[in-house]
Amino acid sequence: MKLLALTPALMGLVAFAQASTITYTTVTGFFLQDETATDASTFDYTAVNFGLLNRTYPADQKLKHAKELTQWERFYNQVEQLNDESHSDIEYKVLFLGRHGEGWHNAAQTYYGDAAWNCYWAEENGNSTATWMDAELTDNGVDQALVAHNFWQKEIDEQRIHTPDNYFVSPLTRTLQTANYTFTDLKFPKGAAKFSPLIKELFREGISIHTCDHRHPRSYIHDLFPEWPIEKGFSEEDELWNGVTAETSAAQDVRSTTVLDEVFFTSASSKKDSFVSVTSHSGEISSILRVVGHRTFSLNTGAVIPVLVKAERDAKAKATTTSVAWTTSAHCTVPPLTSVTACVCPSSAVPVTTPLVTDV
Ligand SMILES: *[C@@H]1O[C@H](CO)[C@@H](O)[C@H](O)[C@H]1NC(C)=O
Ligand SMILES: *[C@@H]1O[C@H](CO)[C@@H](O)[C@H](O)[C@H]1NC(C)=O
Ligand SMILES: *[C@@H]1O[C@H](CO)[C@@H](O)[C@H](O)[C@H]1NC(C)=O
């Protein structure tokens, strides 16, 4: 397959996006991950009930048998009450943000080191033994997704947790696989929504010149998980990745806002569908956390954190279009000197901004 012709918008390094009329905030006081004292690097969501703090809630008072209910049952009741008692322009949702398990690109970054990875290897589709263009999970990555699977089952059995009302997943292979291993074959509670994740373009990883950010065509994704819905307008070829320009954090945050706007206030029952699963990536989850005003919290591969988000819609405001610049990133055409920490090419090879590979 040939690399797509670059569109003028991309070559001009500018992406256009709709500015949101929804304001997002994180409601703190419910989860360990919201507190500055919690160390993300050692945080194990399976050891601490997804981080849900042990406490009482205002809504407990109206419950007849509060003492017989689990923490997650009472928390769900509290979220329902927040939605019931708020204006129709306010919506609360609990986003279960899950990072994919380890992929071949993660293994390769560790194997080559950050400098050689960023300057050269990440621009290749793989090496002679591994492929990381739209990387698949390693065996370790599959195991991490199965840890999430087992933990969800334990939470269903012991905490009678309300399972997600909606599932969303990034179109990259590692997130599709992770969502599949996590949620397929769970023994769901009675009345639970079916696991049928909607594949959404804008939940993908931050788009760099790395080939791991280059997705497969729609038909490949459909063949991998034929029963899963793919959002309307999803293009056959990846029209965002070009191997030359990369999304900046600012551009990514505009994109994350756009995709959140597609999750909140979607239907009359949107308030009822308050538990939402999003299987995505470290960079994209960081961006979502910035947009919802959450503290910085880096997820380890395979980790999942819930976050309670309040969305407030300004029905009178007009949506405006903003443009956000993308940027070029230089890289080497041969592996850089491995002793350096920055992208320094061997003297024979000047850094370039043209793609290393043009075939998928
Ligand atoms: C809440 O209490 C349970 C049972 O004592 C414990 O397993 C869990 O880790 C506690 N949660 C937090 C966030 O401390
Ligand atoms: C290719 O990269 C993988 C990491 O993704 C590494 O385990 C493997 O040893 C590399 N192969 C060669 C031939 O260097
Ligand atoms: C999806 O998950 C099921 C259950 O773990 C597994 O048997 C199947 O191989 C997975 N499919 C893909 C395409 O990874």
TrEMBL record:
GO terms for molecular function: phosphatase activity. It comes from Penicillium frequentans. Keywords: Signal. The lineage of its organism: Eukaryota, Fungi, Dikarya, Ascomycota, Pezizomycotina. SMART domains: PGAM (SM00855). This is Histidine phosphatase superfamily clade-1. GO terms for cellular component: cytoplasm. It comes from the Eukaryota. The keyword Protein transport does not apply. Pfam families: His_Phos_1. Residues 1-19 form the signal peptide.
